[in-house]
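ok so I'm stuck.
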Amino acid sequence: MESIADSQRAPFTFIWTIEHFSPQTCLSLFSPSFIVESMENTRWYINLNEVAYRFGCSLIREGNKDTGPKSIEIDFEIAVLDDNGSVLISEKGHNVFKKELYRTYLFELDDPLWEKWRKVSSRDILTIRCRMWKTHGQKRVRSTSADMGFACSKLRVEQNSFIWSIRDFSSLLVQQTKILSWQSPTNEEPKITLDLHIYDYKNKEEVNIFPTLEKSRDCNYAISFSISVLDAHGREVDCLIDRQRMEYRKETYLCSSIITKSKLIANKDLYLKNDVLLLRCTFKIGKGFILNPVEYSYSTSSGKANEPSISYGMRKTFKDFRDKLFSSAIDLIESKSETSKEEEKDLSTFSCASHSLKKALKGLFEDGVLSDVILRTGDELFSIHRNIVSARSPLFRGMFDKETKENEIIDVPDLDADTLRNLLLFFYTETVKDLQWKNASKLFKAAHLYRIGDLEDVCSYFLRDNLSESNVKDALSMGEKFNDDNLKLAAMQFSSGESK
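replied:
not stuck anymore, here's the structure
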């Protein structure tokens, strides 16, 4: 293993780090260009590109901005480094470079290099090193300096995960299909459709999943996906598809048989509680750079720094540069929203959220997109987002902290399906619709149980406004049981004839 210190022997060394890198979500990536003064002020850059499930790493001489000679002869070496600067793999070459001429080396996508890289790269950082020597007649020209250049690029990678609930799974017949359409909440990527098929192959009913990527002309991303089966407790027990790459050039992706129907049914207590198959689907989407590249270079002979786009001061080692760079990097995410002050006054519908936000969150709840935990009551399953529900109820937050370290399904036996649905709808939209005395009473009790003061007030107001001879005793009982003095007083006044 060669140390980064050996790079000092080369007249010029360029080190490029790419943060959030993944072989499955790699786009065509270009490093910042760099000028090599000791090689007649030639200008260069590196291109990393996926080619037929291999990675091509190219050293390219820039054209228009290069003020150097028409051609230059050099030796060069391209290497992939680990976090400590040791070489994982390297390729050497010799070439006469004219402007816009390049030389490419290919690294196999399934090469053990990537598995090794994953183990040693703690932050998903790919480090590429390029060393260059000027030559004449294939003999290296001696140089009195050892210049270096550094650059860092950060990739924008969006990861989305959701749970696909397939009900009545055991009743699915051969050639039957279940379809799920998914699109990122940003709506920037084309829609992905998952088709689950049952096929008869050699007297075995096999389950296959076919992802389809909607065609789009403006494609500048790469997608990888994984699909796993969850057990009755929400734990991943079988990984069906692991980090398969989706290329935007294709439309449909054929997956081999992933599991047999007979295996799922034979282990129904593990896989099919209430005859529901749960699949966790995870998509990682690479979208190119999110930060302007940071360049820094210096000369060990003169100490004179070249003109970087952003300078972090004199850093004499690769480790110094990396530590300084990543301790200084700050991600800024700005979110702006406008809310209206309009409030609905209909007694059967209470709302205090803006219309646009309510609509978006309601869609998130109903579609279950990007959900990360399931609530179960009886035979009903609700795919929810723990961050939203935790923000609304401290009791649920405590349940998530305690029970979902390993489990992704939580049973809620004290609420029926309709009450839990109304409770969750309020969490997402601060709205409850179609209130009647019976469901309002159940919701009032649930709000008290899960410490949701706003919902208690809404239900209490509705109950007080809809008192009748048939329900006043229940109202008085609830007021006493749940310490609601307003409901208790209203019921007492109604019974004595004091209310209007």
